[in-house]
Structure formats: C-alpha cells, structure tokens
From TrEMBL:
Pfam families: GAF, STAS. Keywords: Phosphoprotein. It comes from the Bacteria. Residues 350-461 form the STAS domain. This is GAF domain-containing protein. InterPro entries: Bact_StressResp_Reg, GAF, GAF-like_dom_sf, PAS-assoc_C, PAS-like_dom_sf, STAS_dom, STAS_dom_sf. Residues 279-333 form the PAC domain. The keyword Membrane does not apply. The keyword Cell inner membrane does not apply.
C-alpha cells in the first residue's frame, strides 16, 4: 500500500483537475460553494453522496456535535441539508468519529462490513442506509488548532483507493480545511462588523436623540472629536471647528450671571481632561444661533478610558437651563407678588373698614399695633374714606389689649390724616386702663371726639347728622 504522506507524481489530468478545484475553492463565497468546488475531483471517484459537516461543539478539544452544511446526491445539486440548523450528536458513534477527528489524513473505510475499526452497531447502521464504503476527510485547521469539519464520501459498494487518490484526498482535505477556516473567519469578521455597525447606529441614534448637548474632546490636544445635533443647534457651531480650534477657543464663556469671562482652566471639561476626574459647573455662553444671546448651561464632564484605564478623551454633557431659570424667576416673582397680595389682603381683613351709612365708616381695631400695622391701618382708612366720601370715621380700639407710644402715635396720625380729607375722626372703646396709659404718655387728643363705646360713637354721628340737615 502506498504511503499517503509520500509525495506522488500526479498525472497531468489529475493536476489539471486539482488546479480547477483550488480555483473554485478560492472563488467560493459559501460553504456550499466549497463543496461544489471539491466535487470536481470527488464526483468521478464514484460516491452516490457527499456530505460536508462543520464541527460546532467541543469538549476538551474533542468535537461532540457537527452541523451538516452541504450535501450532494448523484444527479442533484448541492443543497443545505439542514435548514433547521440541527446538529448531529457525534457521541452516538464516538469510535468512528475518533477515527477522523484525531487524524490529519483521510480515513478510508474501503469495506465497512469487514473493517475491524467499525463496530457491529455502525456496520448495521451503514448496511441499513445502503452504504458499503466511506472516505472521511478531516478538515484540520492549523489556525484554529483543531478539526473544524469533515467531508464524508458514501459508496454503494466496497471501494479501493489508489496511492494517487489517497495523496490527492489528503491534499484536498488540507485545502478544504484552509478555505473553510478562512471562510469561517471571514464570516465571523463580517458578523463582527455588522454587530459593530449596529452598535454604532444604536449609539448614534441615542446620541442624536438625547435632550442634552454632548461634546467630546481628545485628551492631550483638547481637539474636538464629536458633538451631537442638539449641541450644535444649541450653540450654533459646526460639529468640528474647521480651523481646528478647541472648544474654549471657539466659544465666549462667562461666569454665571455676569459678563466676566471665565478662564478656560475653570471649565469642567478642561478640568476633567487635566485631572482625569469628573467635574460639574454652571456657566453662561454666547450662542452663535441668530438671536440666541446668552445661554446658561449646566455642565457635567467625565473621562473616557480605554481597556487599560488610560484616558484618551473626555465628554461633557450640557443642558440649556436658560428658559428654566427664566421660568423659575417668573415663578418666584409671581410667588412674591402673591405673598404680598395675600399679606395685604390679610392686613385689610384684620383692620376692616365697615360702612355704617352714606357718610359714616367704622374701623374696629383688634390686637396689638406696631409700626407696620399702623401704616396699613392708615392706608386702609384713607383709601376707604376717600372712596366712600365719608364725613365721619370711627376708630374703635376696644380690642386693643394695651396702649403705648406706638398705639398713641398711630391714633394721632390717623386722626390728623382723615381730618385733612375733611373727615371728622371719632375715637371709641377707650377703657379706663387705656385712658390712664394715654394720660401718662401725655398724649394730646384735643380735637378728637372720644367716646366709651362704638354704639355711642354711632349715636353721636346720628345726632350731628340730624342737626346738619
């Protein structure tokens, strides 16, 4: 028997066939294409079927499962026999599988019925399928360091192989393994590229649809690397400055709420590029959008690192809070105005001016008096008297708990003020203790009608009103 490993001088016909085969292998664009190219030599050997299996699952370097990826039957085209992608469990015939996955040369079962390498179960299985001989071409990849597939030729009758056939089958198995490994590597790279492109598109979609501006600069040079659309629209600049300027050279940045330029070394992105740590801040920036004016931006910068932890860039995320701050200021103004209005209304309710007739108003004063409340009382009294064209105004201090200089001053100012409007002031509700206090303070109430009760004050107005008629 000829040694399959020894070089053999091929016939010119065989050499031409091999040249055609390897040309086809080089041009193949699929695993089925590889099998079609190999059939140029394999078909004339007389098999009724040829299978190409790709190993898929390994245990300790040994293939335990294989997937059929191409099948040729006599007088038919090569097809994918396994569209549902179901693997063959090689462990069911482990003794036969070991024959080819441990070898780098073809395994030739020239007569399965009498071959001692085949057990009874395998012989019975092959006899049931009408297979009398097989040639197994292990596809061992040096790059992968293992068998990556196998080509199996099935014969209806026992088949002896010549030395040339054995030699060519070994060359063909090595060539198929090389091209199959290359095809698989190409497919893996293409899939990696597709995955990378999908990830790039996903990240781009996320970046372009974020409600905040994003800007990235290169470590060391601080040159711009990218900016998303909303960042461009916010500041009115191109994504990468044509003149190569850095971000702090291309923008006018000010301290918040001022026109004082902010040194670029204080910018969060610059500080992150310098220190490698995250930084935040709030700045005012001149927008180059037409009519943009000054924008207030909240900034948050963070380093971008490679697998070794080295910072190669830094990214800053910025949010335009100009309108938010303006709205917040408006809300504060509205709140303060509401508080002021409520305080005024409360003050007026605490010192109500009560109309008791066409030309008489009364103001019952309850509680302690201070300078602020005295001013409020005076405002309410003057406004009410003028509005109602009153002739008399009764100030009832029955509810004032004690009298002091603040109370005395308030009463005197109120009396003098309404008298300037032509209104006669009347003071009622002076209790004995209040009277003693006012006398002790040497308060001069001359010119002011004083009566003990509100009822007597009303009666006094009624009597004088009748006389006037």
């Amino acid at each position: 028997m000829t040694d399959a490993a020894a070089p053999i001088e091929l016939s010119s016909a065989t050499a031409n066939i091999l040249a055609t085969v390897f040309t086809g292998l080089a041009e193949a664009r699929s695993e089925i294409g590889l099998l079609e190219a190999a059939l140029v030599y394999l078909r004339p050997l007389g098999p009724f079927a040829v299978d190409l299996h790709r190993t898929t699952v390994f245990a300790d370097g040994v293939p335990t499962h294989a997937r059929p990826v191409g099948r040729w039957l006599a007088d038919a085209a090569v097809v994918d026999p396994n569209p549902s992608a179901v693997d063959i469990d090689l462990r069911s015939h482990l003794s036969i599988s070991r024959l080819w996955y441990d070898q780098t040369a073809p395994v030739l079962l020239e007569d399965i019925a009498g071959d001692p390498r085949c057990d009874a179960a395998y012989r019975d299985l092959m006899a049931g399928l009408g297979i009398a001989a097989q040639a197994m071409l292990p596809l061992h990849s040096e790059a992968a360091g293992r068998v990556i597939g196998v080509v199996v030729l099935h014969f209806r009758a026992p088949r002896s192989f010549t030395g040339e056939e054995r030699y060519v089958l070994k060359i063909l198995s090595l060539g198929l393994a090389s091209f199959l490994a290359g095809r698989r590597l190409l497919a893996e790279r293409e899939e990696s590229l597709r995955q990378a492109e999908r990830q790039r598109r996903m990240l781009t979609a996320v970046l372009e649809n974020l409600p905040v501006g994003v800007y990235m600069a290169e470590a060391g040079t601080h040159k711009p690397l990218l900016a998303n659309q909303i960042g461009v629209e916010t500041l009115g600049k191109t994504r990468i400055e044509d003149d190569g300027r850095t971000y702090y050279e291309a923008f006018d940045v000010y301290r918040r709420g001022t026109t004082e330029p902010l040194p670029h070394v204080e910018l969060p992105l610059y500080r992150t590029l310098t220190t490698g740590r995250p930084h935040t801040g709030v700045v005012d920036v001149m927008s180059h959008v037409e009519g943009g004016g000054i924008l207030t931006l909240e900034l948050a910068a963070a380093p971008v690192r490679d697998d070794n932890g080295e910072m190669f860039a830094a990214v800053v995320v910025y949010l335009d809070v100009t309108e938010r701050n303006r709205a917040e200021a408006e809300r504060m103004h509205i709140r303060d105005e509401l508080i002021r209005t409520q305080a005024q209304a409360l003050a007026e309710r605490s010192t109500p001016l009560i109309p008791l007739g066409d030309d008489l108003v009364a103001m019952p004063i309850v509680g302690a008096l201070d300078r602020v409340r005295a001013d409020q009382i005076l405002d309410v009294l003057l406004t009410g008297c003028a509005a109602r064209k009153a002739r008399w105004a009764i100030l009832d201090i029955t509810g004032v708990p004690h009298a002091d200089t603040a109370v005395a001053g308030a009463l005197l100012r109120a009396a003098a003020a309404v008298r300037l409007l032509g209104v006669e002031p009347i003071l009622t509700g002076i209790r004995p203790d209040v009277a003693r206090t006012l006398v002790g303070l040497d308060v001069d109430l001359r010119g002011v009608v004083t009566l003990p009760t509100l009822q007597e004050g009303i009666a006094h107005v009624a009597r004088n009103s009748t006389r006037a008629r």
